[in-house]
Amino acid sequence: MSLANKNILLGVTGGIAAYKSAELVRELVQAGAQVRVVMTEKAKAFVTPLTFQALSGAPVASDEFDAPQAEHGMDHITLARWADAVLIAPTSANTIAKLTHGGADDLLSTLCLVTRAPIALAPAMNQAMWSHPATRRNCETLKKRGILLFGPASGKQACGDVGEGRMFEAHQLLLSLDHLFHTGELDGLNVLITAGPTREPIDPVRYISNRSSGRMGYALAEAARDAGASVELVSGPVDLRAGEGIHCVPVNTAEEMLQAVRRHVDHQQIFISCAAVADYRPVARQPDKIKKLHADLSLELTRNPDIVAEVARQPRRPFVVGFAAETREPEKYALQKLERKQLDMIACNNVADPQCGFDSEENALEVYWPGGHHSLEQDRKPKIARGLIRLIAERYASTHKPGNVTVLKKVKDRNQNS
Ligand code: PMT
């Protein structure tokens, strides 16, 4: 399941099928997703917010001006940006009409205008309402706009009618949502990623390191796995667990990271060097803890091997993506690194900004490749990672033409549908 660690915003509108959404929340949470529920006023006539709060473990919102919501730092803009996907289940005919016309008279419809995440609707209504020309036309308009429809199913309805308009069952919605994250952009490819910091020991208790949390590299590993790749992650010491299906090789020092990369790089098509590898290490590691004997102490340092440059120098190299962490003149230094290290692509983050880069939840990247550039605007690292994986898939497909016509087609199809 790709739903682990995904942020799912579940909208619930007024309809008897709202009772099925309680089961859906339970299944989403079981699949490892974080769920936030937003209800319309009419939905509350069918199921209480308390039910969803208990199942999701998070406060339920329905009004832009909800005090409890604001207290959790989740105003409507934050909530819209938080979501990896928005699913409205059940979606009433009225909500379909409202979304078609861009209405924003409650929290749910407002969120749908703000979010850049994919939106999916699970319609549930009487069969006559579903087949009404107005609803049919509205659905066509929404589909053209890229909004997905999960269902409806047909069968016996709560009102006694028989026909199309029953909401999909919870497990069907779960599968459809899961499918949304399987892009197929890297189907069948092997991807090696480095993440986190390295630690260069000074003595048995001290080391040189940096503030890398590993979040960016781990998010890339999940995004590459969701895109269909088989992923190996060489990770410095971090407080994170690699996602399901990702093979993780833990290391401490730059030298260990280099050895692990050498062992695993041979069968890879893509190498992404996201680790913040220490550029220098102490010349000698002291066998005992250094005593506080003098006012000053000098440490002699020596350069660490440049892992990404070594991979890029190989005669049969994978597609090599580097990162550049810069505090000034980011474009100039990123382009220099792209050329000097002979990379296929470089993702530059301006780490002078405390909201981005090292040890933060968010990032923003300027991505360069020979003759091209793309900006990934500030967002949560999992979303930035998906954007970068998509760019990598596009570049990989266009530079490795013979066997990758299918990959390029998948990437293009995906972009048209999103
Ligand atoms: O881990 P997070 O808290 O989520 O933060 C993410 C990040 C800021 C660490 C990440 O986005 C990032 O920028 N990683 C690269 C950090 C870095 O070392 O940048 P650099 O400009 O010093 O290095 C350039 C490139 O060379 C990088 O791809 C780096 O992995 C590689 N390198 C550097 C030194 C070295 N000895 N070997 C290398 O392979």
| Small molecules bound in the structure, each named once | ligand PMT
* Low-confidence runs of at least 5 consecutive residues: none
Structural class: alpha/beta
In CATH, the architecture of the largest domain is 3-Layer(aba) Sandwich
> Helix amount, in percent?
25-40%
Major sheet summary line: 8 strands, mixed
Task: Report the CATH topology name of the largest domain.
Answer: Rossmann fold
Overall pLDDT metric: 92
CATH class descriptor of the largest domain = Alpha Beta
Q: Strand order, biggest sheet?
A: 12-11-8-13-16-17-18-19
- Enumerate how many helices there are, as a single number: 15
Mind telling me the C-alpha Rg?
Answer: 25 Å
Q: What does the model show?
A:
This protein folds into two domains: 7-180, Rossmann fold (3-Layer(aba) Sandwich), CATH 3.40.50.1950; 190-286 and 298-417, Rossmann fold. 36% of the residues lie in helices and 24% in strands. It has 15 helices and 19 strands. The chain has helices at residues 18-30, 49-56, 67-71, 76-82, 93-100, 107-114, 127-131, 133-144, 170-181, 215-226, 254-264, 307-313, 330-340, 381-399, 405-417, and strands spanning 7-12, 34-39, 85-91, 119-123, 148-149, 153-156, 162-166, 190-195, 200-203, 206-208, 230-235, 247-250, 270-273, 280-282, 301-303, 319-326, 345-350, 362-369, 372-380. Helix 1 (18-30) packs parallel to helix 2 (49-56) and helix 5 (93-100) packs across helix 8 (133-144). The chain starts with 6 loop residues before the first strand and ends with a helix. The relative contact order is 0.09. The model has no long low-confidence stretch (mean pLDDT 92). It binds ligand PMT. The site of ligand PMT has 28 residues, from helix 10, helix 12 and strand 16.
